[in-house]
């Protein structure tokens, strides 16, 4: 069945079809087609230069595709949106490096991230509504930082900073989360805890997670897409893609 006919029968939260992007004649994305279903967590793996970051860039309006279709929830043509507009319609992106404000507390960082936009000044001067307070409590529990909420973000471990930043994304109430190499630099314990957090998040969000750490991908226990040379090389369970001859040849090595 073609990707187009699957799409009609089962609307996706994210639908890419034939997406290409060239830089000076080099095809970073080469007719890339990919679907994420509502509530799905999808891991994206692939060699350096495969196009993983470029794919996130075209989804979020940072880079314009030369050709192809990019739809969010069947409804939004992502090629028409810039980065701020993409965030507003419900796509949250987390870059590899955490960007929390270290001189503010965990609570203050989360407070500023709430949908509707609160400046540092507003966050310090105005009381939260009951529903905003509930939202922050829910996020703090989800990221397991409720006991640290009044500590400065600068004192957190690398893993905790990553969780705080994920909490800040949740403050924006996204439906789809795009997360770039969350496990990089984490201890083994933090990595496994992050996998558990993502499984919790997947109960109420769709997630696309780019990662190189195979233990982490295994713990996510989700469908995996292997990108290579700007298009999909293989897709399926981790066991299936690891056994794929092309994946062994071009990514995993013999
Ligand atoms: N702005 C740009 N100008 C020129 N070439 C670029 C640009 N952005 C990406 N590329 C090239 O496009 C290709 C895909 O890069 P991309 O960063 O998307 O790969 P990746 O899969 O994210 O790699 P990594 O795992 O190393 O992060 C690479 O060859 C890269 O050099």
TrEMBL record:
<dbReference type="GO" id="GO:0005524">
    <property type="term" value="F:ATP binding"/>
</dbReference>
<protein>
    <submittedName>
        <fullName>Urea ABC transporter ATP-binding protein UrtD</fullName>
    </submittedName>
</protein>
<feature type="domain" description="ABC transporter">
    <location>
        <begin position="14"/>
        <end position="254"/>
    </location>
</feature>
<dbReference type="InterPro" id="IPR003439">
    <property type="entry name" value="ABC_transporter-like_ATP-bd"/>
</dbReference>
<dbReference type="InterPro" id="IPR051120">
    <property type="entry name" value="ABC_AA/LPS_Transport"/>
</dbReference>
<dbReference type="Pfam" id="PF00005">
    <property type="entry name" value="ABC_tran"/>
</dbReference>
<dbReference type="InterPro" id="IPR027417">
    <property type="entry name" value="P-loop_NTPase"/>
</dbReference>
<dbReference type="InterPro" id="IPR017781">
    <property type="entry name" value="ABC_transptr_urea_ATP-bd_UrtD"/>
</dbReference>
<keyword id="KW-0813">Transport</keyword>
<keyword id="KW-0547">Nucleotide-binding</keyword>
<keyword id="KW-0067">ATP-binding</keyword>
């Amino acid at each position: 069945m073609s990707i187009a006919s699957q799409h009609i029968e089962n609307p996706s939260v994210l639908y890419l079809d034939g997406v290409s992007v060239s830089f000076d004649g080099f095809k970073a994305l080469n007719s890339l087609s990919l679907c994420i279903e509502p509530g799905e967590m999808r891991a994206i793996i692939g060699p350096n230069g495969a196009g993983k970051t470029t794919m996130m860039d075209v989804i979020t309006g940072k880079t314009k595709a030369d050709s192809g279709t990019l739809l969010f929830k069947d409804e939004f043509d992502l090629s028409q949106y810039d980065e701020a507009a993409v965030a507003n319609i419900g796509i949250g992106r987390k870059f590899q490096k955490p960007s929390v404000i270290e001189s503010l507390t965990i609570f203050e960082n989360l407070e500023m991230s709430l949908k509707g936009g609160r400046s540092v000044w507003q966050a310090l001067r105005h009381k939260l509504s009951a529903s905003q307070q509930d939202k922050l409590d829910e996020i703090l529990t989800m990221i397991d930082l409720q006991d640290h909420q009044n500590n400065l973000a600068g004192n957190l471990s690398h893993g905790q900073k990553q969780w705080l930043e994920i909490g800040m994304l949740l403050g924006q109430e996204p439906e789809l989360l795009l997360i770039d190499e969350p496990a990089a630099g984490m201890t083994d314990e933090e990595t496994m805890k992050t996998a558990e957090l993502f499984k919790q998040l997947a109960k109420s969000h769709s997630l696309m997670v780019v990662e190189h750490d195979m233990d982490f991908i295994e713990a996510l226990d989700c469908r995996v897409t292997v990108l290579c040379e700007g298009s999909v090389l293989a897709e399926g369970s981790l066991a299936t893609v690891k056994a794929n001859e092309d994946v062994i040849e071009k990514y995993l090595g013999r």
